[in-house]
Design a protein that fits this description.
The structure is a single chain. The protein has 186 residues and is of the alpha+beta class. The chain folds into 2 domains: 85 residues; 62 residues, Head domain of nucleotide exchange factor GrpE (Nucleotide Exchange Factor Grpe, Chain A, domain 2, Roll). It has 3 helices and 6 strands; from the N terminus they run αααββββββ. The strands form 2 sheets. A 3-stranded antiparallel sheet has the order 1-4-5. A 3-stranded mixed sheet has the order 2-6-3, with no helix packed on it. Helix 2 packs antiparallel against helix 3. The longest helix is centred in the middle third of the chain and has 54 residues. The chain is elongated, with a radius of gyration of 41 Å. The termini are far apart.
């Protein structure tokens, strides 16, 4: 038996693929200009990226400084408050026998408080003035409500813990005792 070739069986042979040369749309002298990087655009992008980076780091730096100030202030406030309360107690407890010692102690406390207040002012820290003013839930926490006259209803009667502001924001809310109008008995 003889072997038959595919073309003998009537099968079609695959056509030869002829590749035609692709004509270039641009001349060879224009092509290198297109492949070269555009350094000006890269420079503009890098400049913008760097400017954004610089601004972001400045904002982060300011936030870190503010956080550090706040942390420091929160550590100093209890000492300041104790000194203020003790100064008030010393002023009320003057005795004739210990007049000189009390005066020296009072003067020392006044000087320490003045220095602390100066440091706080330079950092934008101020004490809230809340007594005999309406309760403000944004800056104060109520620790108790006590019966009061009608004229003192909703007003801060006493301050359990002083409140402080820093740069116009609440650093530590005041803890207050608020007056509440007495309910009339029927």
């Amino acid at each position: 038996m003889s072997k038959k070739k595919p073309h003998d069986l009537g099968e079609e042979q695959p056509e030869e693929v002829v590749q035609e040369p692709v004509q270039q749309e641009q001349s060879s002298s224009e092509q290198p200009a297109q492949n070269t990087p555009n350094y000006y655009e890269q420079f503009v992008r890098l400049s913008a990226d760097f400017e954004n980076y610089r601004k972001r780091t400045e904002r982060e730096k300011a936030a870190l400084i503010a956080y550090g100030k706040k942390d420091f202030a929160l550590k100093m406030l209890p000492m300041y408050e104790v000194l203020l309360r003790q100064q008030k107690n010393v002023q009320q407890a003057k005795h004739k026998d210990a007049q000189k010692e009390l005066n020296a102690l009072q003067e020392g406390m006044r000087m320490i408080l003045a220095e602390l207040e100066k440091a706080f002012r330079s950092e934008g820290i101020t004490k809230m003035d809340v007594l005999k003013k309406p309760y403000d839930p944004q800056t104060q926490e109520v620790v108790a409500m006590i019966p009061a006259k009608d004229s003192e209803d909703g007003l801060v009667i006493d301050e359990a813990q002083m409140g402080f502001m820093m740069d116009g924001q609440v650093l530590r809310p005041a803890r207050v005792i608020v007056g509440q109008k007495k309910e009339e008995e029927n």
